[in-house]
Design brief:
Layout (H helix, E strand, L loop, with lengths): L5 E4 L23 E10 L2 E8 L2 E6 L3 E3 L1
Antiparallel strand pairs: 1-2, 1-5, 2-3, 3-4
Length: about 70
Amino acid sequence: MKVGDLVRVKTGSGVFEEGEDTTCYWPESKGQIGVIIAKTKRLYIPAAKVLVLGEVAEFDLEELEII
């Protein structure tokens, strides 16, 4: 993934659900499409800042899929 890629947020329930291996704490973002605006790391985990739903949020790369 690189800056400028269109991505879909794969997870967003905030709790672990069957079939999901990661979670995030913004349920409205699940299934939404955004644009990567910066690459970053959370501790040692690769992540990206994504413009989604008019806001900038940080997601692990595992939580995103390229469209």
